[in-house]
# Entry
Amino acid sequence: MMQQLFSYSFRPEEGKAITAIIPHLSTIDARITTCAPEWPVDKIAKIDLAILRLAIYEITITKEAPVKVVIDEAIELAKSFGNSNSPKFINGVLGTIIQPV
# Structure
């Protein structure tokens, strides 16, 4: 699914979620930029960016799953598919996003 989010080419079962996220990419990326100002979106590892985009979409737009569950799932994805720094980075960005303004 992560790879599909960047290629905009996906299987039908992935299509629904990804199609829903795409219109919100500029808003989601702006949130990432605000929460990780030292990491421009174009410099974030693609897998980390995909995980962040999905998690931020679930936290801020759909709000269907509990925030803790979304963050835990994002960290697990980062452990499985990212590099050794990915889980900490993902957790930090998402932790900042959920803090009250």
